[in-house]
Amino acid sequence: MEEGVGQGIGSVPLARLIPELTDDDVRRIVKAGAAIDAARTDDRAWGWWLGSNTYNFHFCVNERHSGGDEYYLEFEVGRNGADAVLEVEANVNVTCWCAKDHQFDRIVEVGHECQDTAELADVFERTATEAVAWLWDTHDPVRLRTRVGLPSREVS
Question: What domain of life does the native source organism fall in (predicted)?
């Protein structure tokens, strides 16, 4: 298996990971990924791996806040197996303070299965737009929990 990390979407070897991408697909994905990169305030890299009939590229933003709170945004594109569908997933999670500890509670989640690379480029663009909005939104776990009705601190 090959893997790597790099700064910015331009470091992801898209044509090697997904050889069926057209030049236009690559251009659209790179443009949408660049919008994500411009909105990020962290210095974490995009990661990728390539195996037999599987691939993945992703980034995550993990921020620690006071009181043991965490904010975690993840964006991922992948295929797991020759017959598997192309998938684009993104989500925002915060530390769980529920009576039953789930480790993280999901605040928002987007997941799409794509039938071909043109649809992958479409979905990547739409999901990237959502991820940029999440990056510009509050990263305060307490405010995010309140927004969706989750407990703000441990419940006994």
Answer: Bacteria
- Nearest-CA neighbor of 150 among 104, 91, 90? 104
Banded model confidence at residue 66, pLDDT cuts 50, 70, 90? confident
Sequence ranges of the domains in the chain: 2-148
Cα(130)–Cα(120) distance, integer angstroms: 15
Structure tokens at 105: 């509670």
What is the side-by-side strand order in the sheet with 54-64?
A: 2-6, 46-51, 54-64, 70-80, 86-95, 104-114
Per residue in 110-136, pLDDT (tens digit) is: 999 999 999 999 999 999 999 999 999
Tell me the H-state helices in the chain: 14-17, 23-39, 117-136, 141-148
